[in-house]
Amino acid sequence: MGQQPKVYVTRSIPEAGLGVVREACQARVWQEKLPPPRQVILEEVSDCDGLLCLLSDEVDATVMDAGELRVISQYAVGVDNIDLEAATARGIPVGHTPGVLTEATADLTFTLLMAAARRIPEGIEKVQSGAWQTWEPMGLLGAQVWGATLGVIGLGRIGTAVARRGRGFQMRVLYHDTEHKWKLEEELGLIYASLEELLGEADFVSVHTPLLPETQQLIDEGALRRMKPQAILVNAARGEIVDTQALVRALEEGWIAGAALDVTDPEPISADHPLVRLENCIVVPHIGSATVRARERMAEMAAQNLLAGLRGERLPYCANPQVYQVIDG
Ligand code: GLV
Ligand code: GLV
Question: The whole model's pTM is what?
Fold first, then answer.
């Protein structure tokens, strides 16, 4: 039996995946709560065949050139922390975990939407602080979700799952995407809209695009000013899709009614940041996929991708399939 491949795992992940990796590889695992410093990653990959990483690790050409990685396996669906072009150019397949966190993330998106609409954090605070004294005819009035208009930007897996939930609440669901999704449109009763139309009409705007150069700060000052003053922005995708400074102003000056964010720019965000302090903004710590079930499945998939790459097989879930044109010549 040949020597086991060497891999570096940048954080302890659920045993469902880590156990599999440990069995097949010589695995070194970063055990701390915070991400490994860049220098540590550079040193660790220098003799590794594979890297299993998280969205908080920047994996760029320098990391790739620090060793001879044959596979990079990301424990997440989004891969904006990895330079995919650099990986492809070097013939390194990059794995990710689509599908298994879709429903968990859509659940969280809807949780945020409803919590913001019904001002749940303010209500909790009122009870906990002892300020609640009686049933109030006009206290904590929020927005009705049922029957409202939902705007979904990016009708991928997660956006579609959110749209389905919206339809369950008999919402009118507008979507914007780079292309018409005719089948889904018909199946779910969705309405295609330009970005401008969607922003102008939706009571709830929910962002579900990947982070790409084209979606960086897609929700900028102009977009926020187009939204209705009673509208709520929900972001469980990537913080950089929204212009943070513009959002702070929008919330302070009442261009929109509120925001609910699972992701922020910067991330993590400090406790004294205006977005955290503002009463009309809810921030939770990037927990979209944080269910026991989703995280176990993500760990299994990340392990499968890693091992496939080490064996020279196609990754079952590859984020840069173009790499096989490079590899196969
Ligand atoms: C989480 O944000 C992910 O991309 O999986
Ligand atoms: C996630 O699975 C997405 O692509 O929406």
Answer: 0.95
